[in-house]
Amino acid sequence: MFTFVVRRLLLMIPTFLGITLISFVIINLAPGSPIEQKIQAIRFGGGGEVGGASGSHSNSKGSVSLNEEILEALKKQYGFDKPILVRYWIWLRNIFTLDFGTSFTYEEPVLKVIVSKFPVSLQFGIASLILTYLICIPLGILKAVKAGTTFDVVSGLILYFFYAVPPLILGILLITFFAGGSYFSWFPTGLLYSDHYDELSFWGKVWDRVHHFVLPLTCYVLGGFASLTLLMRNSLLDVIKQDYIRTARAKGLDEKTILWKHALRNALIPLAVNLGGFLQVFLSGSLIIESVFQLDGIGLLSYMSILSRDYNVIMGLIFLSAVTLMLGRLLTDIVYVIIDPRIDFK
């Protein structure tokens, strides 16, 4: 096992280089770079000084023409005065100290910008992950035990309905019915707490947070309910049909012992693949949900960074996503071994 882990960690190095290099090249070759946006702002905004260089003049239409000195100053300011592979090497060298550069949009260190968005996405990511497993696993077990009954059919239809509803539509419906005032005004929208949050007692703060979490968290978890619940149900049904389960019944063991001691452990193996996604909760974010509920998280940051061509923020998010994804895959394999000792990675 130790050899397998070391080998996987070593394989992560070329994988990481491939992901980041391809992403870096594509991002930098895409049209609409920060320099082009800055040039447009100077030309049509009437400003002409960049880094202390002045050399622009207005034409009859009110736009501004830029000379080569200003263009070179802009390239140097944004780091585009070097070849693309040199820039990638500089970026790669700097990330060892977690220096992702400065955000073109926020004019702050990229790491500071990303960390400032963590509270929203991290809280919803952890809460949705825990809540999904706490509900889906027992529900999947119950559906397997009652397979073919009215409960199994009705619960399956409900799960398929929520799975089919897009998050955007679900979010709008939740706000309309429960927070928009058209029907009920039970829950607030926007931010994670009330304006008077600091004045509340400890339990008052807890309730205030829960009150703000209900609708967005509902949107986060309902989409994943169907797949995980049905995976648990079908996996348990497959295990129950195995020969060793029939042997256990033939020996006279009661159904509870067979289910909880013999069947459930093996039925959980397919679900272990999702446990590696635990690390992804640090970067989990939904653009649609965050936009609908006015939450400033990682999803919205990613979208706005792409629109504004904030290359440093985009690469910072790609770096963190790649690392957490690869470590999550490794964690999944380790969980496989813990759940099923028959699996041996060599």
Polypeptide structure, described:
It contains 14 helices and 4 strands. It is globular, with a radius of gyration of 26 Å. Helix 6 crosses helix 8. The longest helix is centred in the middle third of the chain and has 39 residues, at 202-240. The chain has 2 domains: 33-110, no CATH class; 113-339, MetI-like fold. The protein has helices at residues 2-29, 34-45, 68-78, 84-94, 110-145, 150-164, 167-178, 202-240, 243-250, 255-267, 272-275, 287-292, 298-307, 311-339, and strands at 49-50, 53-54, 57-58, 64-65. The chain is mainly alpha-helical.
What proportion strand? Answer: under 5%
Shape: globular
Neighbour order of strands in the largest sheet: 1-2
- Regions with pLDDT < 50 over 5+ consecutive residues? 60-64
Strand count, sense and barrel status of the largest sheet are: 2 strands, antiparallel
SSE arrangement, N to C: HHEEEEHHHHHHHHHHHH
Give a count of the beta strands, DSSP E runs of length 2 or more: 4
Distance between the termini: 6 Å
Q: Give the rounded overall mean pLDDT.
A: 79
By helix and strand content, what is the structural category?
mainly alpha
Radius of gyration: 26 Å
Q: Count up the helices.
A: 14
